[in-house]
Amino acid sequence: MRRYILQRLLLMLPTLFGVLALSFVVIQFVPGGPVEQLVAQLKSAGQAAGSESGGALSGGLYRGDHGLDPHQLAQIRAFYGFDQPAWQRFWTMIGHYLSFNLGQSYFYQRSVTELILEKLPVSISIGLWTFLLTYLVSIPLGIAKAVRDGSRFDTVTSTLILIGYAIPSFVLGIVLIVLFGGGSFWHWFPLRGLTSDDFAQLSLWGKVTDYLWHLVLPVTAMVVGNFAVMTMLTKNSFIEEIRKQYVLTARAKGLEERSILYRHVFRNALIPIVTGFPAAFIGAFFTGSLLIETIFSLDGLGLLSYNAVMQRDYPVVLGTLYVFTLIGLVGKLLSDLAYVLVDPRIDFAAVNQ
Question: Is there a contact between 214 and 129 (Cβ–Cβ < 8 Å)?
Fold first, then answer.
């Protein structure tokens, strides 16, 4: 097992390096970088000031029809680090990333690590509650559907969860706002942020209820579409186990149906579900919907990454990609290790021999 873990950790390095290298190369060909954006801003400001003064912008960086001073342009390129060759910038970035120094944001003028940590609570809140509600509802519902396979309960619940799956999360979010956020009907839930403006003055119980009240609409919009996949996976897994020979043998011995279901079927049927826990648990924090964050004014990692791409804030783009990729690789490793914990018959050491 230790050898397998070591091999997987060593394989993470070329994978992570390849993702960063490919992303860095693509970025070099994307038009409208930070230097071009700043030059365009100076040009617009210079033209506006020049039209007001009836001539050129004296004493500024932009010199009317003569464009930007080449010396100032060189200083701007040096400020963003573009005075160095691309390969040198890449290896410098890799060296910094080894010590988790993700650099400075071009747009926010702050550390990328600070920005990620600042936005992380929003993504954790949405992801954690989405993960918990999905599994707490889907697993019992899937078991009930498997036991009652073909019944009216099975048909009705399948219809409902498939309807929820067919509705995009952002569409459901808009519907919830219209119905319960003061749009046209009832104003039961707040629409902005995770807390109210007077959150600091509230009591402990008031803070808890205020926080949960803000989460109702965005989490509902996120979680409804997730029920279908997990519920049907649970149902099909249980049905497959129920039809196996050992269940028929247990029934022939006279064991109670409840005992067969929870003592024999339950553990085997949950293997494909439980083994996905680590990846789903970690991924839930970082796969929040950008549209949900925008609709409900939640300033999380999704919105940060999107704004970084639009603003060509390369340190934020590459820094968040580095963190997401690293956590995703660790999540896959934990998922594989979960197989051994749930099913002792699996031996990775024997597979590698």
Answer: no
Instruction: Tabulate helix, strand, coil % of the chain (nearest 5).
Output: 75, 0, 25
The rounded distance, in Å, linking the Cα atoms of 3 and 348 is: 9
Burial label for 6, CB within 10 Å (0-12, 13-18, 19+), is exposed
The C-alpha atoms of residue 179 and residue 242 are separated, in whole angstroms, by 42
Burial of 222 (0-12, 13-18, 19+ CB in 10 A): buried
Q: How far apart are CA 144 and CA 165, in angstroms?
A: 19
Rg (the chain; Cα; Å): 27
User: Looking at the DSSP assignment, which residues form a beta bridge with residue 68?
Assistant: 62
Distance, in Å, from the CA atom of 212 to the CA atom of 100, rounded to the nearest integer, reads: 33
Residue type for position 308: A
Is residue 339 within 8 Å of 291, Cβ to Cβ? Answer: no
In angstroms, the CA 167 to CA 220 distance is 12
Q: Quick one: CA dihedral 221, 117, 132, 276, positive or negative?
A: positive
Contact 103, 89 (CB under 8 A): no
pLDDT tens string for the chain (353 positions)?
677 778 878 888 888 888 889 988 888 777 777 777 777 766 666 555 555 544 444 445 544 445 566 777 777 777 777 778 888 888 988 888 888 888 888 888 888 888 888 888 888 888 888 888 888 898 889 888 988 888 899 899 999 988 888 888 888 888 888 888 776 777 788 877 777 777 778 888 888 888 888 888 888 888 888 888 888 888 888 888 888 888 888 888 887 777 777 777 877 777 777 766 666 666 666 655 677 888 887 888 878 888 888 888 888 888 888 888 888 788 778 777 777 776 666 666 555 55
Alpha-carbon distance 320 to 189, whole Å? 32
